[in-house]
């Protein structure tokens, strides 16, 4: 029997809040202002959906929250400190972008087992690989390598791998990419469960239905333009 998305549980909370506090964030690229005096506060257990037209600055904001891009002005605190691209930060934070990397000598199942083993002891805080394979519809592809999966199946694996280890904050850039509508609905349930179990999630998305099914608060970015 397939394990339904709503049956998966996560153990992610520790009571600190807000998880994200961004104030007066300004990001420029040459003469172009990408974000201008942007504020965002996200509490533990919240799901926030960043929406807006192409070029509105959603991915840029996610990169800033992940410590991968500096702000020109303003301040960002993530889990109580400025985000920094180091192993301590990434132990707490999961990020998905459209850049995926796989080991060509490991199967789909082995990728999930590897993630779990690296983060051991994981205990009950994360679903086991077999449960993730079922929930993400990858059970019959568990013994092949990721490069032989379809685009949508690889996106499923990417999301499953992120949920295979403990985290306190997930930053997702258009997680709906490549996913069929049925699985998008399951993903919304999974993300809502992650937040319900104490995790915090910020995602850039063009899928209002996914945002709604994840129980997200919508934050619309408008871009800024030439200074
Ligand atoms: N390094 C850069 N140099 C110049 N312009 C940049 C740079 N990075 C981002 N931009 C510009 O900033 C704007 C915001 O880009 P960003 O990728 O954050 O938008 P987005 O809202 O995620 O868009 P999409 O919905 O298409 O993914 C775009 O106009 C982009 O061209």
Automatic annotation (TrEMBL):
Keywords of this entry: ATP-binding, Nucleotide-binding, Transport
CDD domains documented for this protein: ABC_DR_subfamily_A (cd03230)
Ranges of residues in domain ABC transporter: 20-227
GO molecular function, a single term: ATP binding
Keyword ATP-binding: yes
UniProt keyword annotation of Amino-acid biosynthesis present: no
Protein name: ABC transporter ATP-binding protein
């Amino acid at each position: 029997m397939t394990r339904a998305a709503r049956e998966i549980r996560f153990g992610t909370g520790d009571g600190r809040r807000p998880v994200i506090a961004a104030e007066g964030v300004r990001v420029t690229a040459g003469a172009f202002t990408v974000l201008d005096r942007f504020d965002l506060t996200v509490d533990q257990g919240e799901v926030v959906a960043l929406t807006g037209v192409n070029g509105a600055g959603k991915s840029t904001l996610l990169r800033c929250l992940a410590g991968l891009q500096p702000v020109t002005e303003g301040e960002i605190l993530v889990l109580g400190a400025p985000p920094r691209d180091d192993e301590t930060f990434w132990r707490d934070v999961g990020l998905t972008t459209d850049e995926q990397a796989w080991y060509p000598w490991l199967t789909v199942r082995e990728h999930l087992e590897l993630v779990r083993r690296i983060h051991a002891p994981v205990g009950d805080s994360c679903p086991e690989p077999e449960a993730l394979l079922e929930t993400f519809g990858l059970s019959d592809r568990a013994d092949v390598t990721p490069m032989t999966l379809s685009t949508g199946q690889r996106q499923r694996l990417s999301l499953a791998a992120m949920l295979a280890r403990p985290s306190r904050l997930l930053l997702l850039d258009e997680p709906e990419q490549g996913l069929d509508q049925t699985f998008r609905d399951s993903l919304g349930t999974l993300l809502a469960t992650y937040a319900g179990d104490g995790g915090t999630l910020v995602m850039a998305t063009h899928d209002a239905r996914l945002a709604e099914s994840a129980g997200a608060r919508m934050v619309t970015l408008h871009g800024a333009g030439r200074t």
